[in-house]
Queue: 4 jobs
Job 1
Amino acid sequence: MANELEKQNAAAAAMEFVEDGMTIGLGTGSTAKYFVQMLAEEIADGLVVRCIETSEQTRRLAESLGVPLIPSEQIERIHLTVDGADEVDEHGFLIKGGGAALLREKIIANASDHMVVIADPSKQVERLGKFPLPVEVTPFGYTITAKKVYDALCSSGIDRPRVELRAQPGGRLVMTDGGNYILDCHCQRIPDAESLAARLSGVPGVVEHGLFIGIARTVIIGNEAGATVFEF
């Protein structure tokens, strides 16, 4: 499928940023999976790196492929993180969290010298918001928090937003690796992502939100012939 080829080409382009001796953050999701697989192949051929995962899903994948992982408490420096995105705009601002790993993803990305985002063309947008914005919240008082999140969305100029708890098929609530819930905020269009990010960060009960503002330095969009690299 062309879409999978686009993802693979984006991941392959990200491998150009990998250097021997690096500590690398490993993202979560269908595109990041290809990067982990390609990295494992290079490790098998002699590349020496250390890695830290952004989710239990990625940890299991990395371990199955022989990618060396180190505990977060032993990290002194993260040279590079390669991760996917649910949306990316012309400023390099992102929506992430479709895989419910946004907290760990943001911790690792923010601590990195260089964050590289890999995606297929369907993730490029003129303005963020069509993909539901994930907001991770504590289970305690989540209904109160959801109301405050709704108010923050409205105050940021979003017209008639909808806030829903993410659930699995069958109705069981999705729980993150950190034991929290996910609110999916249906915005359609976010007029000012920076303003909304600040408002959401100020809501008690919000652990983290899926707006990644000014964190990505490089965005790689794969295509059937190769990839296009954007620097920010």
Note: The first helix runs from residue 2 to 14.
Job 2
Amino acid sequence: MKIGCPTEIKPQEFRVGMTPNAAMEAVAHGHSVLIQAGAGNGAGFTDADYEAAGAAIADTAEEIFTTADMIVKVKEPQPGERKMLREGQLLFTYLHLAPDPEQTRDLIASGCTAIAYETVTDRNGGLPLLAPMSEVAGRLAPQSGSWALQKANGGSGVLMGGVPGVRPANVAIIGGGVVGTAAARVAVGMGANVTVLDRSVPRLSYLDDVFMGRLTTQFSDKGAVEELLPRMDMVIGAVLIPGAAAPTLISRAQLGAMKPGSVLVDVAIDQGGCFETSRATTHQDPIYDVDGIIHYCVANMPGAVARTSTIALGNATMPFMLALADKGWKQACADDPHLLEGLNVHAGQLAYYAVGKALGIDVISPQMVVKG
């Protein structure tokens, strides 16, 4: 199989879809790899690194989209890239289709087969290709939020860890999964007063044990959120419904209960955001103010630490990429029901129920696609 990896063109996205090590593995399996010139620069990988791994270098994205059997990326294809996708081509990347009807329509119209990193599962019910980026985004969230809290950035001027005689910041993290746990680890380490909310009592028990009383756990419901908001300096939204649009946790009306200069960090913005007032921002222009509350809603947070993120993502995606290349997507998905969960689009049809429900589009069962 010919595997192509273009340069990411989403604003301020410095990651790359394949590491040189992944390219070397693919070549060792008998496949050819085509990398766009400069694709790895933002993550610290040179064209020479890829050539040493056995990959060829292409001057343009057009060359890659025209010749490759499988396109491996990081972020969802942008409008210009979607125009280059063709019938029968395999796309393996993050898609986040539920809040993005335009991309969904374009992928369906292209006739390609699209497998989304974020909906591939594992035997424990986890999301193995989303987890490493969730870890990164979670760890970045308190760090980015603390920057937004600085007065020069519009925040209230509260230091996360305080100083002797001055209280630390109060931080609420809504969602105790991979993102929330990673965020809690960093926020606690920064010295903040942290509360984690979740609807799973066993998960709250786990967090209470792991953090040994260094944070507060609270069952998440509307009343609990409303009670916490007036006291919080920062709220981190860390909820996820796999493949579906994120639920709204804080409405615009509730912003009035928060202290001026408080910060909302929406890690769920890729799935539409979990605050009513959220809208996607970039690393170049990451924050905005609504009713005196600072919002940080960067849609590709891990792109800020591209080296770490690229290697972590490559470690997770490489086995699946090799299975798709070695067996072809249909056999690979037939052999692995967890990879089959990643199938979102095939040959002009949508194949993921949560996306269809969110966008009002008819869906075909992925099992039927594989059998067809």
Note: The radius of gyration is 21 Å.
Job 3
Amino acid sequence: MTGAEHGHAVQTWYPEVVDGPFTSRQLIRIDEALRLADAETGATFSVYVGDLHVPVRGHAEKSHSQLADPDNSVLIAVSPNQRVLEIVTGEKVRKRLPDRDCALAAFSMTAAFTGGDLAGGIVTGLSQLASHTQKI
């Protein structure tokens, strides 16, 4: 813990991320892909990696609904242990990002996942989704 905000300690590192499935370099690549996708589209992209409760689509949709601006957000939810990928788009983004393009991105991502490249698959998916999302 470092820093202080109005007399309260502020957590600046998150052990669950450090101990997760990604190296520091992979986390930086994913973070950069998220920032580029956001800037390129005006939408907000998020990634969740971890187990999803059954029904997995319902869990992904619930997680998406808890984002700051769900209508203008895209959530990529990946559960490597369950071999599941869900892409959830908000109402505003759905008008700019067709399901067909989400399916193509999902196909590319799962191909990378099958090859053992979780981070690369996420980066590829973010790039494809952003490139297919029509700018506002």
Note: The CA atoms of residues 109 and 121 lie 4 Å apart.
Job 4
Amino acid sequence: MNEGDSAPAFSLPGAGGETVSLAALKGKKVALYFYPKDDTSGCTKEAIEFNALSDKFAKAKTVVVGMSPDSAKSHDKFRLKYELGLPLAADETKEVLSAYGVWVEKSMYGRKYMGVERSTFLIDEKGRIAKIWRKVKVPGHAEEVLAAAAAL
């Protein structure tokens, strides 16, 4: 995936029984962030940072969507526990994660395994990828995405 490419379409179950689909968001900017796992320290911080800026993202006409391989049921608990209002999509098959190139081989303490590379894709109103952040470091990331969305 590169900036300027068409964003791969998706329609996935989400928290709260909703369906999260890119087609339903056409005409809006979308900050699609991929994270490894619900209720882990980095992922929780990232979700809380994006959630805290939801009014500012709305003013920038941008919808923030989080996606991980966790189940919709896991997303429900995560959203409830941290009072998150943003949509969370469940990609248990990892098809969308793979399409965006964020389901990758990782390594920890010499052990290799497959996992989500924390990444964010800013998608414009026409469904094209405007900006990509890979190997995201959480502190300040949501603010950086907001600034890019506002400038788009």
Note: The first helix runs from residue 41 to 52.
